[in-house]
Write a structure and sequence with these properties.
The protein has 210 residues and is an alpha+beta fold. The protein has 5 helices and 5 strands. Helix 2 runs antiparallel to helix 5. It is found in: Membrane.
Length: 210
C-alpha cells in the first residue's frame, strides 16, 4: 500500500503542471463570471428587444444649443470647449415615426440629444467645422439613400444607432476566451494525470518482468 502511494506521488515538474492547470481553470471560471456580470449581461440587455432596419434621412439640422466637451493637450493640460448640436432625423422601415440617429450606444449615453459628438478640440471653431462637415456628409453624400441602422424598442424607442458597440464578434470573444482558458487548464490536468498513470503502470509491468 505504501509503495502504491509512493508510486503516485507527483514529481516537482508534474506538480507545477497540475498547479498551472488548476490556475487556468480558476482564471477561466472567474473571467467568465466577471465578464458575465459586469459586461456581457448589460450588453445582452442592450441588444434585447432590438434589431436592424433600413433608415432614410428626413432632416439634418444644427440646434442653437452648444454642449461642453473636455480636451487634453498633455499630461497636465486639460480644458473645456464647446461644440454645436447636430441632429439627424431618420425614418425607419419598422416605424413611420421619425427617430433621432446616433453614432453608437456610447455616444447615445454621452449626449442623447445630439447625433454626433466631434473629437474635442481646444478651439470651438474647429469643433464647429467638424460638425458642419458631418452635416454636409449626411445632406449631400447620404441624402435619401437608405442605410442600415439599429434600434431597441424597449430601451430607446425614439432613437436609432448607426452601429452597435456590442456586436456579435465582441460578444463571441467575451465568451470564447474564458472558455478556452478553462478547457486548456482541464486538458493540462487530465494529460498530467494520464501521463502519471501510464508511467506507474509501465513501471509496474517492468518490475513484473524482472
Amino acid at each position: 500500500m505504501a509503495r502504491s502511494r509512493a508510486a503516485y506521488e507527483y514529481t516537482e515538474a508534474e506538480d507545477k503542471s497540475m498547479r498551472l492547470g488548476f490556475l487556468l481553470i480558476a482564471a477561466g471560471l472567474l473571467s467568465l463570471l466577471g465578464l458575465g456580470c459586469c459586461w456581457l449581461r448589460p450588453a445582452l440587455q442592450e441588444r434585447g428587444g432590438g434589431g436592424s432596419a433600413n433608415c432614410t434621412v428626413l432632416a439634418v439640422r444644427q440646434l442653437g444649443e452648444r454642449f461642453a466637451c473636455t480636451f487634453s493637450c498633455g499630461a497636465a493640460c486639460r480644458g473645456t470647449a464647446r461644440y454645436p448640436c447636430l441632429q439627424v432625423l431618420v425614418r425607419t422601415s419598422r416605424s413611420s415615426v421619425p427617430a433621432l440617429l446616433h453614432e453608437d450606444e456610447r455616444q447615445l449615453r454621452t449626449n442623447p440629444k445630439c447625433s454626433y459628438i466631434p473629437p474635442c478640440a481646444r478651439d470651438d471653431q474647429e469643433n464647429s467645422e467638424n460638425v458642419t462637415y458631418k452635416q454636409k456628409y449626411w445632406k449631400e453624400k447620404v441624402g435619401s439613400q437608405p442605410f442600415t441602422c439599429y434600434f431597441n424598442q424597449h430601451l430607446r424607442p425614439d432613437d436609432v444607432m448607426l452601429k452597435r458597440t456590442h456586436d456579435e464578434t465582441v460578444l463571441l470573444h467575451c465568451f470564447l476566451w474564458p472558455v478556452v482558458t478553462f478547457l486548456v487548464g482541464v486538458l493540462i490536468v487530465v494529460l498530467t494525470i494520464c501521463a502519471k498513470s501510464l508511467a506507474v503502470r509501465a513501471e509496474a509491468i517492468k518490475k513484473k518482468k524482472h
